[in-house]
Amino acid sequence: MANTAKNINRNFEDSLLNSLSKNKYFSYSDEGEMHCEGVNISSIAEKTGTPFFVYSKKYFTDRFNLLSNALHGTNFKIFYAVKSNYNLSIIRHLSSLGAGADVNSAGELYRAVRAGVSPASILLGGVGKSAEEITFALEQGILLFKVESYGELIQIDRIAGTLNKTARVALRVNPNVNAKTHPYISTGLAENKFGIPLEEAEIIYQDKSLPNIKFAGVDMHLGSQIATTEPYAEAIEKTLAMCARLREKGITLHHFDIGGGFGVQYDNESDFPFEEFTKTVIAPLKASGMTIFLEPGRFLSANSSALISKVMYLKKNGNKNFIVTDAGMSELIRPSLYDAYHQIVTVNTKNREKKIYDVVGPLCESGDFIGKELEIEAPEQDELIAVLSAGAYGMAMASNYNARLRPAEVFVDGSDWKIIRKRETLEQLVQNEEDCL
Ligand SMILES: *Cc1c(COP(=O)(O)O)cnc(C)c1O
To answer: Which class in CATH covers the domain with range 28-55+305-431?
Structure first.
């Protein structure tokens, strides 16, 4: 996965950077100043300081509509995977467009409800739901649990019984297909911890010994940043065959949840092929008569945002040029964690000479970098840079490592902007501690 050679020989023709000029969400003005929608990014930085994430509201709207249009004419519901970005304003905006929420913990469930999502539009997943989380979700009245093991099913049945409730359940099957993505974000192979093997799920669906469980549907999620439709088509074919066998035995599952994972453009990848998706994935599902559920995260959020950071220092060690920025792995851990690539550009472009840089943060870790061997227009000290495609698994994975203050988040709507999350304060860093020794 080393990016080195690729980055130097990068094909700028198709890259995200090149498409910036045509991008409605992030673009340069004639004066070479980067804007998010109608707002000059430097003007935000003057008021908020750096680093901060800036989001385009229109991006979320357009992506949600793009996905909805691909499903036009079918019975479907989109559940936003809150884990990709759980800011309340972002959840609220997607909810106002008609999205439900896919959550993975009591915390995400709490956030979704706080953001105005009806519990009747919330799915709770996760391989290790605690008794407290199950109780909380039943009390809230969520739409359904996605169950990942027989042990968990028994636990949910027991807790639902004590609360006098019925738990709606979809088994998350593991169809054992290769999503051909990074091993850390691949989830649909037999060797992964996720899901229940199809053969076992088929047996569990026939279990009549769980009085407080109602089987409502079937669920899968193959991984993330999946570029092609084949893994979906293959997994759906296998799983629909199981559903048909169950139907013959009188067990009808009403919805088929295909999960999320639709790939996006970070560099010169193409966007997820929706035309083909409609033909090879949606058509067979539609023919089955089941309602289609989807759980997109990254697809809705990744390119909504840029992480804006300041060049603090420029340095050279041997032959290597470094840009030391005020954002690092505490703001955006994807490069360190997954060797992920993010395009980095200067916020003001002045047709300067380009050089090859490593862009590194201020944390005390050699693994603290945002980009390696990237070709960037040579910036000056104190200048702003933008790390593109930072909307998914950016702020959601931000940490306080090195006792860093988590950054601000800014939402742009046309020519207006507002802070949707303030920068953390030093006082907040210690608020839960008792300094009593
Ligand atoms: C992470 C996750 C998603 C969202 O994945 P994306 O790649 O962001 O679309 C959806 N469903 C489940 C179960 C997940 O774990």
So the answer is: mainly beta
Residue 223 alpha carbon to ligand 1 centre in Å? 7
Q: Which of 36, 243, 364, 436 is catalytic?
A: 364
Q: Which pLDDT score, from 0 to 100, does residue 24 have?
A: 86
Output the average pLDDT for the chain. Answer: 93
Asked if residues 28 and 350 have their Cβ atoms less than 8 Å apart, the reply is no
Distance (angstroms) between ligand 1 centre and the Cα of 174 equals 14
| Ligand 1 atom at minimum distance from 224 CA | 7
Instruction: Please answer whether residues 111 and 421 qualify as being in contact, where contact means their C-beta atoms are separated by less than 8 angstroms.
Output: no
Report whether residue 125 contacts ligand 1, using a CB cutoff of 6 Å. yes
28-55+305-431 and 58-301, same CATH topology: no
How many angstroms is it from 260 CA to the middle of ligand 1?
5
pTM of the shown model: 0.94
Does residue 364 carry a catalytic annotation? yes
Range of weakest confidence among 184-188, 266-270, 325-329: 184-188
Ligand 1 near 259 CB (within 6 A): yes
**Which CATH superfamily, name and number, covers 58-301?**
Alanine racemase (3.20.20.10)
What ranges do the domains of the chain cover?
28-55+305-431, 58-301
| 16 in Cβ contact with 268 (< 8 Å) | yes
How sure is the predictor about 23, in pLDDT bands with cuts at 50, 70 and 90? confident
Report whether residue 297 contacts ligand 1, using a CB cutoff of 6 Å: yes
Quickly state the pLDDT bin for 435 (edges 50, 70, 90): confident
Q: Is the CB of 84 inside a 6 Å radius of any atom of ligand 1?
A: yes
Is the CB of 81 inside a 6 Å radius of any atom of ligand 1? yes
Inter-helix orientation angle 150-162/131-140, to 10°: 50
Position in ligand 1 atom list of the atom nearest CA 301:
8
